[in-house]
Amino acid sequence: MSLDDRPAAHGMLPVDGDTEVYWEEWGRADGVPALYLHGGPGGGLGRSAYRQRFDLDRMRVVGLEQRGCGRSTPHASDPSVPLTRQTTAHLVEDVERLRQHLGIESWVVDGVSWGSTLALAHAQAHPQRVLGIVLFAVTTTSRQEVDWITEGVGAVFPEAWDRFARHAEAAEIGYRRGEGRLVEAYATLLESPDPAVRDAASWEWARWEDTHVSIGAGGVHSDPRWQDDRFRHAFLRLTAHYWSHDGFCDPPLLDRTELLRDIPAVLIHGRRDISSPVVTAWELHRRWPGSQLVVDEGDGHGGASMVQRWRAANDALAGRFGG
After folding, report:
1. Domain count, the chain
2. Catalytic sites, residue numbers
3. Where does the record place the AB hydrolase-1 domain (predicted)?
4. 132 and 191 share a domain?
5. pLDDT tens per residue, range 154-204
6. Across the chain, how many H-helices and E-strands are there?
């Protein structure tokens, strides 16, 4: 690892009982503070490529690995780790605790995919702590969105969805298509005491994930991260948990947009995003006069062109708040 690949600071922050979350910091200590919230739930920070979406000569960029994933502990890949304190409200509390720990008064908040749900929840809970928002692949994790990504989009990929649903039906847990939510069936399978059941369910969901994000991404490719059992089990266990509870967002985030009225925002979304159709970003923009909607006609659930727009949005906010 070169010096440029080392964060300026990093650490483990105790947040709740034996729970600690990993954080890292890049850029100028006196720069415009910015928080990056990763996707998933359970995606982690990876190799920290997110920092390239910010001008580190002008910004102080903080990355947080949400509880249960990445370097945060305890890790959700361990089936003995309970998920009772895994809710969006707990994650928002973690974000606020980190802000206080770092002595940051307010910051620009960036959220990607699921991270955009968390960014909105944080901003609605603490609007005075948010300078501006950049959302990439916008989601609010409403029931409608969850049911679409786990069932409705099967109309586009019927062969892959049939396999996804048949696995849950064959597991003899009482699920039958049309008689229950598939996401709840998989949440049950991923909590099974039988490690073989959990492993098989994680691989089926991984295949489904690779399929529904394929449009705009050059076709179906297996995400290499799935080969890491620890990553795969934590990612999909957490995803099933949060999605089966509609993101723990009650009332829905779209019904609380008045709390965001004084916060500038850029919402970046791909027209070809089948996983999360652009209607969610549009509805959020329509209810949030201070937001700018940027629809990339060529990209899906992320892509090179969207990333360029992401960097431009952060550059604009750095200029606005950089004094």
Report:
1. 2
2. 113, 273, 301
3. 35-301
4. no
5. 999 999 999 999 999 999 999 999 899 999 999 999 999 999 999 999 999
6. 9, 8
